[in-house]
Design brief:
The structure holds three protein chains of three kinds.
Chain A (H helix, E strand, L loop, with lengths): L30 H14 L1 H18 L1 H4 L32 H36 L1 H16 L2 H12 L3 H28 L2 H8 L4 H37 L11 H8 L7 H29 L7
Chain B lengths: L7 H21 L34 E6 L15 H9 L4 E3 L5 E3 L7 E2 L5 E5 L14 H13 L6 H4 L2 E8 L2 E6 L6 H5 L9 H7 L13 E7 L3 E6 L13 E6 L3 H10 L4 E2 L7 H6 L3 E7 L3 E6 L17 H4 L1 H10 L2 H9 L4 E2 L23 H11 L5 E8 L2 H16 L2 E8 L1 H10 L4 E6 L6 H8 L13 H12 L3 H18 L2 E6 L1 E7 L2 E2 L2 E2 L5 E2 L4 E2 L2
Chain C lengths: L1 H28 L4 H6 L5 H10 L6 H13 L13 H36 L4 H15 L2 H15 L15 H36 L1 H8 L4 H23 L1 H15 L4 H11 L2 H29 L1 H9 L1
Helix pairs in contact in C: 1-13, 5-6, 5-8, 5-10, 5-13, 6-8, 7-8, 7-11, 8-10, 8-11, 10-13, 11-12, 12-13, 13-14
The chains are: A mainly alpha, B alpha+beta, C mainly alpha.
Chain lengths: ~300, ~550, ~325
């Protein structure tokens, strides 16, 4: 496999141009020094700062949804459908069933972030061990590579529909389906990072010294692969949030009447011409949140990239 | 609860804000003004079936594009099961009988209504002389016999059940068909006014056999040209048609556009001239659009909630004990019925465009009566009392499986809010259609929301669903008293008697509530004003065969 | 090199067989079946049984799979359980639509992505980079069905600039064909643009720091020529990589885009088939996507080693 550093389907993450060449890289600096340098670089990237700030606000809003929301998100008011944004009592208007859009956005944000985080946890839980194993043990590489190939060759939607059909539509199942679809991407990132690190002098020296495989993996490989993993996780969250929106669009999202940003959008699709704000508000919310994740993830990647400092 | 002001002053403010909403969109997409609607339009429940084309006003020739909401399945009337195939068959496969705009059965390839013998066992149908199939084969009674026999014997026939207990079909002369029945079967004529009555060219049947669907040949104003899977079906004027003078168009293209808002968009942009099954959300806007007419007719079907009262081991097995209060205690189901504000539901969810329904019989049906249209008033207080009497916890938790399409999900959420007042805690379980069918047949549900597209004869709307051992009795319902009434109604040939019997049947159903009927859909079709002669009757079929362009 | 190719071929065949087995068993494990989905409202036990028998769904699984493989090898993928149209015919009708959509989307992505990527690399650390970054990432952050909806609402219905949906075959009317595909390609292309942009930027940065560029610079080659030549070369690498890696993503993205715009393509067909439990169609779809994925990746690897000899060396080492 030469194109080892690749992206999973519909995970438009970056494909680092470097192949497994890095034999001359110096051992990484001590962690605290590095962390400070990363933070400094992050702070200097205005887009990253913007992304981080938006994320912080979004997370706080989602956590505090029960406090901030003016109404319960599922409260129906048949007498007040399609109130335009700004109507007294309904800052962002109401939808077809007279539900307060602001309240639904807050709770929907919560659900979308949950799906994002859960999906990434699924991808991490399976992808990291498999990626480490594939990169470190040549014997396992072939098997695991077949597995990732198989997953990539398999249309994701069939899997998602299958899961929803067998287990029912719910937040957990949506996250599971999306998480599974992100496993190959995680495996590939971790695998190539492991391959790279394994070729570095200090790891090689440790192996020569007779250190156990698990010790080398845990002491040298994993900590140094962490930055790549974190970047991959950060850019996977927005993919998962968008994935949830797509599943909801197809009727396979979370269980109504709980809102997610995706279900709000798919519901609004029907009356978008009549009440544009019902589609625009949750759409913008998704764009802002995923953009924030992407900006932050991008900045993080640049900050963590050791070669950026060489130039 | 704060209500928004609806004073004129507030209204202007709202408009300004709507404009702000638009401005926001313009940041994302290049902008074009769209009229924001001012809430739901006024309710209109009149019927509008469309007018026949005026021969003086339309041009000869031209092509009509019809936006079809779902892809038809097989273009073989004997094996076809999807309703949408009827829309296409309408232009190329005429039937022994047709429906008129009052849902009365009228002859089409037959020349008169069937003559039924005294004992109800022999049905004689006179058929047209001189008609030709699209491939030039003459149409005669023998062709009718061939088709009906195929419907009765083909393994994959979808028509066998509709045709009832037929023992033989004979063609004593070219214009007479004689059907012999094992027992009287009143719904036969209605079946012959649907796909079972479409007559296929015997030549094409011999040549194509099982592949008839790939190039169907019938008697009709248009003939099949080609089909592109999931995209389009094309038909062109058939010069062999016996009434060719009435046909104006050269060609009709059915384009499959499954998304309702996109169908409406195609109508507005002029890419399609006709569209079926418009969304109730789009109709108010389309009504106000210059150059578009919305045709509206009540459908013959219904939407409702079916309770699992005895489906323990799956469809086709004897009813058993489900063991829950909602299954065993009719008071709980009556409470459900009392908690449903049908008027409010159709107003909120469907812009008031659909009609509340309390029974399986459409008020437009000739078999309808006061008894058949009786309704339970919305009374949540009484509902809670009944739940109290039944001795169940409140709110009573009830799960309902629903199809995961947007309309149904909206209905379910509105219903959920409704039922809360009446003492129910409804949990909605959306599943996709294939799973839903599977779950309901296996009896793996507490309640489910599903509808029936409806047939002209009431028997087809009731017996299958609530008769003991009925083919679609997913409720697992069994009521010998109801069975007797339905049996009498099915074998009676006297319309007045049938009307009375179906009224009785509805009362029996409502006393037990195995199905709570909610609403009746309306067939909402859009037509642009450069087309004349498009009609939609209560059977929902788009009738475009005799339309013409006004240029 | 030859041993390597043989090994890749063998691995590819294995992946393909595994994929067909997984989908074969997987679809049959789903609740519901084609007979039930097809019969829908009008189902009675007798005709359900007849439909199942007609398609051999009653046979033992091993026999069914054997028949599927044997028939596939002869180019017969069975018939759709819903429309009774041969699966090969459906695939032949749907593939060109999706391929055309994919090519146009890639074109959109490359125009936006390579431009932004080069800009970001050349103007590293300046506002222009941030702007290019932000634009590309914005494309990545927009739900494509929402973008599609908005475009239809405002550009197609509102302004009447484009058809709201539908498809006209290129052979029938090339102009109308392109006209119908502009919006779908925009929707699908914006998401890809970010991928292209990131890849272009990083390979540009790499190239600008590389020894041979420094040499070229030292020889007095102007920056315009340098960027031009390397942007071109880079975009080639980018295209090859994206085609290989985003194929699955393109098809998944195409599902939604095709559905919104009513394009009778591969994605829509897949989705409908899954909802209808149309086993023969699902199997055909997976066979084709898996084959395409495998073949394209195989070619990408080959192309890579031709475009960039370094990778061949590196690949040999892994």
């Amino acid at each position: 496999m030469t194109t080892s550093e690749t992206t999973p389907p519909q995970t438009p993450t970056v494909v680092p141009a470097r192949a497994g060449l890095g034999a001359a890289d110096p051992p990484p600096p001590a962690a605290p020094v590095r962390r400070r340098r990363v933070l400094r670089r992050l702070r200097r990237n205005p887009l990253g700062v913007v992304g981080f700030t938006i994320l912080a606000v979004a997370v706080v809003a989602a956590v505090l949804a029960p406090v901030l929301a003016p109404y319960p998100p599922a409260r129906v008011d048949f007498d007040a459908p399609f109130q335009v944004p700004g109507t007294v009592g309904y800052l962002l208007g109401t939808d077809d069933l007279g539900r307060d859009i602001l309240s639904r956005i807050l709770y929907g944000l919560r659900a979308s972030l949950q799906v994002g985080v859960l999906a990434v946890l699924v991808a991490l839980a399976v992808g990291v061990p498999l990626g480490l194993a594939a990169g470190y043990f040549r014997a396992l590489d072939a098997v695991i590579s077949r597995f990732t190939d198989l997953m990539l060759a398999f249309p994701f939607l069939i899997l998602a529909v299958g899961l929803a059909a067998i287990r029912g539509a719910s937040l957990g199942n949506a996250a599971l389906a999306i998480g599974i679809s992100q496993i190959p991407g995680m495996i590939r990132v971790v695998r190539s990072e492991t391959l790279r690190l394994k070729g570095l002098d200090f790891v090689a020296a440790s192996i020569v010294d007779g250190a156990g495989d698990l010790w080398v993996l845990g002491r040298h490989v994993l900590p140094n692969a962490l930055s790549a993993i974190i970047v991959q996780a950060t850019v996977t969250i927005p993919v998962a949030i968008l994935g949830e929106a797509v599943l909801s669009f197809l009727g396979l999202g979370i269980q109504p009447p709980s809102p997610s940003l995706g279900t709000m959008l798919s519901e609004a699709q029907q009356y978008a011409a009549q009440a544009p704000w019902t589609a625009i508000v949750p759409g913008l919310a998704i764009v802002v949140v995923t953009l924030a994740f992407n900006l932050f993830g991008d900045a993080l990647r640049d900050a963590l990239d050791p070669r950026a400092s060489r130039r | 609860m704060s209500r928004p002001p609806s004073l004129p002053a507030g209204r202007a403010g709202r408009r300004a804000l709507a404009a702000t909403g638009l401005a926001v969109t313009c940041l994302i997409a290049a902008c074009a003004p769209v009229q924001p609607a001012e809430g739901p339009a006024e309710e209109t429940t009149g019927q509008s079936v469309g007018e026949p084309a005026d021969a003086g006003a339309v041009e000869q020739g031209g092509e009509l594009v019809v936006a079809l909401s779902a892809e038809p399945d097989r273009l073989d009337p004997v094996t076809s099961r999807s309703l949408y195939s009827r829309y296409v068959f309408h232009t190329m496969c005429e039937k022994l009988y047709d429906l008129d705009e009052d849902t009365e059965i009228v002859p089409q390839l037959a020349t008169a209504l069937p003559e039924v013998s005294e004992d109800g066992l022999t049905v004689t149908i006179p058929v047209r002389e001189g008609a030709l199939f699209a491939d030039g084969t003459p149409f005669d009674a023998a062709a009718v016999k061939t088709t009906l026999e195929r419907s009765l014997s083909a393994e994959t026939s979808a028509r066998r059940g509709e045709l009832g207990p037929i023992t033989s079909v004979e063609a004593p002369d070219p214009t007479t068909v004689v059907i012999t029945l094992a027992e009287p079967f009143a719904p036969l004529t209605a079946a012959l006014a649907d796909r079972a009555g479409m007559i296929l060219s015997p030549t094409a049947l011999t040549a194509l056999g099982e592949d008839f669907a790939t190039a169907p040949v019938c008697v009709g104003p248009f003939k099949f040209v080609n089909r592109v899977a999931q995209n389009s079906i094309e038909v062109e004027r058939d010069p062999n048609y016996y009434d060719a003078d009435r046909v104006f168009l050269d060609r009709i293209t059915y384009r499959i556009i499954t998304d309702a808002s996109i169908r409406a968009a195609n109508l507005q942009s002029g890419d399609a001239q006709v569209a079926d099954t418009l969304s109730t959300q789009d109709v108010p806007g389309l009504r106000d659009t210059e150059g578009i007419t919305v045709l509206e007719t009540d459908s013959l079907g219904y939407q409702g909630v079916t309770f699992n009262v005895g489906n323990v081991d799956g469809l086709g097995t004897p009813p058993g004990d489900v063991g829950t209060p909602v299954a065993n205690d009719p008071r709980v189901r009556e409470a459900f019925e009392l908690s449903v504000d049908r008027e409010g539901l159709v107003q909120a969810v469907f812009n008031g465009l659909y009609s509340p329904a309390c029974s399986p019989i459409s008020p437009d049906s000739e078999f309808s009566s006061d008894a058949a249209q009786a309704c339970t008033e919305f009374d949540p207080a009484r509902s809670r009392e009944l739940l109290e009497e039944a001795g169940v916890q409140q709110p009573y938790p009830l799960s309902m499986i629903v199809s995961n399409n947007p309309d149904t999900l909206r209905l379910a959420q509105a219903l959920q809010a409704n039922l809360e007042e009446g003492g129910f805690a409804l949990s909605i379980e959306p599943v996709e259609y294939s799973s839903l069918l599977d779950q309901q047949d296996r009896g793996d549900f507490e309640s489910l929301q599903l509808g029936w597209s409806g047939r002209v004869d009431p028997d087809a709307n009731i017996t299958n669903f609530l008769g003991t051992g009925g083919g679609q009795n997913v409720a697992g319902y069994s009521n010998p008293e109801l069975d007797t009434v339905l049996e009498q109604a099915r074998t009676s040939t006297d319309t007045q008697e049938r009307v009375a019997l179906y009224g009785e049947a509805v009362s029996l159903i409502q006393a037990d509530d195995p199905i709570v009927y909610l609403y009746r859909q309306r067939n909402l079709s859009g037509v642009t004003d450069d087309v004349q002669g498009v009609q939609v009757f209560p059977d929902g079929v788009l009738r475009v065969a005799f339309a013409g362009l006004t240029g | 090199m030859r041993a390597y190719l043989l090994r890749r071929l063998w691995q590819s065949a294995l992946t393909l067989v595994l994929a067909t087995i997984v989908v074969f068993l997987g679809v049959r494990a789903l609740p519901g079946d084609p007979a039930l989905a097809f019969a829908g409202e009008e189902r009675d036990p007798a005709s359900l049984a007849a439909i199942r028998a007609q398609y051999g769904f009653d046979d033992p699984l091993l026999l069914q799979y054997g028949t599927f493989v044997a028939n596939s090898l002869q180019g017969d993928l069975g018939r759709s359980t819903r429309t009774d149209i041969p699966v090969t015919e459906m695939l032949a009708a749907a593939l060109p639509v999706t391929l055309e959509l994919a090519v146009l989307s890639l074109a959109v992505a490359i125009v936006i992505g390579v431009g932004a990527g080069v800009l970001a690399a050349v103007r590293q650390g300046r506002p222009a980079e941030w702007a290019a970054n932000a634009v590309a990432l914005l494309g990545l952050s927009v739900p494509n069905f929402w973008l599609g909806l908005i475009l239809i609402l405002y550009l197609a219905v509102g302004a009447g600039l484009f058809p709201a949906s539908g498809y006209v075959p290129f052979t029938e009317d090339p102009l109308a064909n392109l006209h119908h595909l502009v919006l779908p390609a925009l929707v699908l292309g914006t998401g890809l643009a970010a991928v292209v942009m990131r890849q272009t930027r990083s390979s540009m940065l790499e190239a600008l720091g590389a020894d041979y560029i420094r040499t070229a610079r030292a020889k007095g080659l102007g920056p315009g020529a340098l960027i031009g030549r390397h942007a071109l070369r880079n975009s080639l690498v980018v295209v090859v990589t994206i085609v290989g890696l985003q194929l699955g993503g393109l098809i998944s993205g195409a599902v939604v885009t095709e559905r919104i715009f009513g394009l009778p393509g591969f994605g829509k067909m897949t989705l409908d088939a899954v909802f209808q439990r149309d086993y023969p169609v699902i199997q055909g779809v997976v066979l084709v996507t898996a084959s395409a994925y495998i073949i394209v990746n195989f070619l990408v690897d080959l192309a890579y080693s031709l475009i960039d000899p370094r990778i061949r060396v590196a690949g040999a080492a892994t």
